[in-house]
Amino acid sequence: MVRLGTGIGWRPEIADAVERMPGIDWVEAVAENVCPGHLPDSLLRLRERGVTVVPHGVSLGLGDAERPDPGRLAALAERAEALGAPLVTEHIAFVRAGGPLTASPRLEAGHLLPVPRTRDALDVLCENVRIAQDALPVPLAVENIAALVAWPGEEMTEGQFLYELADRTGVRLLVDVANLHTNHVNRGEDPAEALAELPLEAIAYVHVAGGFERDGVWHDSHAHPVPRPVLDILTDLASRVSPPGVLLERDDRFPEPAELERELAGIREAVRTGAARSLAARPSARTGPRGVTRDACAPAARLAVSAVGATVAAAVGATAVPASTLAAPAASLPPAAPAAPVARAERVAPRQEPVAPAGAARQRLGLAQAALLSALVAGTPVPEGFDRVRLGVQARALAAKRADVVAKVAPELPLILGDGYRAAFLTYAQGRPMRGGYRQDALDFAEETLLSGRCAPGRPRRELRRWWLDRSGPAPRRTSRLGRRGRALTRH
């Protein structure tokens, strides 16, 4: 198991600050925002200093009823190789539904949605994970997500679902303790119970992030400070196992670098507190049953409880952190030297699976996901068994996420429309699903706003029309020199 240490999510908005931060052992970059042939200079400088960079995917859709798209897998593999990453990570989520499998229009969520914790969904997810593992040059770790809604008729807890997934596929786990807190507030699930059921030796690293509560619902915003309950869950996890790495996520409303450094210090302290509790709870710091040294018997005992498999025992036994390291008052988690990508042969051996899931399981899952996603983004009736109020909260959250991302991929739109951008976009998004990614969504929004007459006559309408015409055709429009001069004059 690669030991990563303490890290932070690399984002262009804080790239310079991250380079200057002390004690950063590794960073994580959103895979879809990185071009392999044109890596950002900041990431290149970090790599030259020996800082590990891990690509974190957000659009693969491992929880989709369809099998993973080969093109998306190839793109993720290319980024892993370009960054020299020791592993790649993705989410246990579905992001699209419909299509030929269900004979219905294909729908894009634009964000991560939870998969039902059922046998059908688990079978499909396991096969999708294996497909991804075979296509990637380095090991894969998958992340538990935050959920605003709960599927009716679930058959497993989150811990049981993740345990079986790791057991059947050998996949590593990226445990997001902020998402455990979110599910505690929104779904009444006990984080301690989830941690007790996890195969802790399968953990690749841990995410920590902030959010906010509104009307009794916790929103995993990644744009607010890390709250105390999230740090307490991290401490609980660290009292059970020494996490190979812990990373702070921040995606928006970036504070001053000093505030980020204080949050990182709080994360390190939470891990130290958990490690100290683990040592204090042991009957003896040095000896276990029959006089065997405690450091030697602890990994085996933990593996006996989790039953991840014989190969895991070999891997974890080789990388277990001794008590002396856990007790040391280090300023950060113990990092390893920058690791080379791990060979396929070094992955955890999964339990043998006799058969792939039947097509009927994929179809059942596909129909259920299409019905839910259609209710969220197209305004169709709420499927039976779901909480209508909570689905309304989720639908508004998806629309708000679309508005935020479109504003980033097409920053001219908020400038043109000013304070009216957000309200105009949320009106547009009601009952209008995405049909081809965020850039297409931006074009569709501009076109609908022009046709509907919601953009007031005058300069904003002229600028919006010009923006749309410049981008909606197969190639940018040609303009005369006189036209370019006239455009420049109208902007001043």
Describe the secondary-structure layout:
Layout: E1 5-10, H1 15-20, E2 26-30, H2 41-48, E3 52-56, H3 70-83, E4 88-91, E5 94-99, E6 104-113, H4 119-135, E7 140-143, H5 158-169, E8 172-176, H6 177-187, H7 191-197, E9 203-208, E10 212-214, E11 217-219, H8 228-240, E12 245-248, H9 257-281, H10 294-306, H11 310-319, H12 323-327, H13 359-377, H14 388-409, H15 412-417, H16 421-429, H17 438-452, H18 459-472, H19 481-490
Which key phrases capture this entry?
48% helix, alpha/beta, 492 residues, two-stranded antiparallel ribbon
On the 0 to 100 scale, the average pLDDT is 85
Radius of gyration: 24 Å
Shape: globular
Low-confidence stretches: 285-332, 336-346
The main pleated sheet reads as: 8 strands, parallel
Helicity level? 40-55%
Number of helices: 19
Q: Kindly name the structural category.
A: alpha/beta
DSSP E strands, number: 12
Strand adjacency order, main sheet = 3-2-1-12-9-8-7-4
Q: What share of residues are in beta strands? A: 5-15%
Report, as a whole number of angstroms, the end-to-end distance.
58 Å
